[in-house]
Amino acid sequence: MNRLFILRNHRNSDFVGRALIRVWALLFCSSLGALAQNTAPPVNASAPFSIRATHLMGLENTKSNCNGTLSIQDNALQFQHGGKPGTKLKFASVQAVFVGGESKQVGGLPMKLGKAAAPYGGGRVVSLFAHKKYDTVTLEYVDDDGGLHGAIFQLSKGQGELVRDELVARGVPVRPGEDQPTKQSTAEVAHENK
Amino acid sequence: MKTSKRSSWIIWMAAVVAIMVALPAWLPAQSAAVKSFAVGSDSATQWSVQVDRVDPGDLDLAYSFQVAIYENLLEELNKTKQFKQVFRDGDRSASDVPNLLFLQTTVEKYTPGSETRRAVTTVSGATKLRVRSQLLTREGKIVLERKVNGDVRFFGSNLRATHNLARNIAKAIKQSPWSVSEQPTVIPTGQL
After folding, report:
1. What are B26-55's pLDDT values in tens digits?
2. CB contacts, 8 Å: A124 with chain B
3. pLDDT tens for each residue of B103-124
4. In this complex, do A103 and B70 lie within 8 Å of one another by their Cβ atoms?
5. Can you state the angle between helices A108-117 and A122-129, rounded to 10 degrees?
6. What is the 3-state secondary structure (H, E, C) of A124-159?
7. Taking the CB of the first residue and of the last residue of chain B, which one, N or C, has fewer CB atoms within 10 A?
8. How far away is chain B from the Cα of A38, in angstroms, using its nearest Cα?
9. What is the pLDDT of residue B172?
10. Do B67 and A128 touch (CB under 8 A)?
11. B120 at interface of A, judged by CB pairs closer than 8 A
């Protein structure tokens, strides 16, 4: 009888110990989460911000499809390419900012030629994995005459929202309905399903 | 031997006759084509155009696509040299221009594609766009209306469809016999 009692007590203490460990682990994880939330950098409207980007089209006096640095300073957005003083866009002239996503094949022309030359359709298998997701930031702005311009930048995945947040913090408006997935016309969908 | 020589001689003579008959008919046709193009471009250079913002219609076309179509249209219309000046939407300096047309673009169909699908399958994943392009006068009179397609089927990113579309619209405007003073040339079913 005494032996049984001792055994039960032993089991109880083991159970309590495990429960304590679990509670401690739970608390530790939740505190880590809270810590991570607190350490997320707040958007500081006055701090300079710069990020690597590719200018796809639209910015005046800038080549299309060129890599550079997109920076946000004081009251203007600037795209610099090759160390030259880049085109500046004042926030007052920017009418809207949109963020979207695109998936593109990587490697450019050499990769395309390599894939085409690969025997037994090997290039297609490579294509299956050789793609990368990007963010696109689209800006609508007006020039001094009031003419509407549109500029599109390509950034690494996840950075589009950072740029948008920075711009929004500086008073650039965001259009409603942004980030919505593109929909097909119903007629086209029906046609595709046939 | 003799018969083969004769038959080759007959063929040769027939070819010479065919060329002699076809050449006079071909030369005036070519010169007429050049002449008509020159006349068309001369009359068109008097006009300027303002490109309006792209209307997505009922479709949820990505903003990057709308902006890309607009920017590519401006570039392609400038390239054609069909118009004296090409203005942007909202440009205040366009209000003083006497002969101004407005180019309105409405998206009618959009099939989002995938570059990866195109690369893997070749036959599927095409990005397709179809728009209705209208050239209007200040009074709202339609001078030209065309339905134009633009797509990317094999190589290139999805945004390349907008470039192809803009090029096709510019080509359609250049090749169409539009005229403002006479009866409007409305070709609603014409596709490029």
Report:
1. 444 443 333 333 334 445 458 999 999 999
2. 119-121
3. 999 999 999 988 888 888 888 8
4. no
5. 140
6. HHHHHHCEEEEEEEEEEEECCCCCEEEEEEEEECCH
7. N
8. 33
9. 94
10. no
11. yes
Say if the Cβ atoms of B71 and A58 lie within 8 Å: yes
Domain residue spans of chain A: 1-40, 49-169
CB-closest option in A100, A123, A147 to B64: A100
Contacts 24+ apart (CB under 8 A), A60-68: A60/A87, A60/A143, A60/A149, A61/A87, A62/A86, A62/A87
| Cβ–Cβ below 8 Å for B111 and A131 | no
Q: Which fold has domain A49-169?
A: PH-domain like (2.30.29)
Per-residue H/E/C for A48-101? CEEEEEEEEECCCCCCCCEEEEEEEECCEEEEECCCCCCEEEEHHHEEEEEEEE
Q: Is B58 helix (H, G, I), strand (E, B) or coil?
A: coil
Residue of A nearest to B110 (CA): A184
Name the token pair of B56.
């997505």
Across the range A138-166, mean pLDDT stands at: 93
CATH fit for domain B46-191, picks 3.40.50, 3.30.1450, 1.10.260, 3.30.420: 3.40.50
Closest CA to A62 of A34, A82, A38, A44: A82
Task: Give yes or no for a contact between A131 and A108, defined as CB atoms under 8 angstroms apart.
Answer: no
A138 and B67 within 8 Å at the Cβ level: the answer is yes
Whether residue A152 and residue B110 make contact (CB cut-off 8 A), yes or no, is no
Q: Do B82 and A155 form a contact (C-beta atoms < 8 A)?
A: no
Instruction: Assess B105–A contact: CB distance below 8 Å, yes or no.
Output: no
CA distance A126 to B114: 16
Whether A144 and chain B come into contact, CB under 8 Å, resolves to no
For residues B55 and B104, the answer to whether their CB atoms sit within 8 Å is yes
At A156-187, the pLDDT tens digits run 999 999 999 988 888 888 765 554 444 444 44
> Taking the CB of residue A56, how many other CB atoms lie within 10 A of it?
24
For an interface test with A, the pick among B58, B65, B67 (most A C-beta atoms closer than 10 Å) comes out as B67
In chain A, positions 68-97, which contact chain B (CB-CB < 8 Å)? Answer: none
8 Å CB contact of A150 and B70: yes
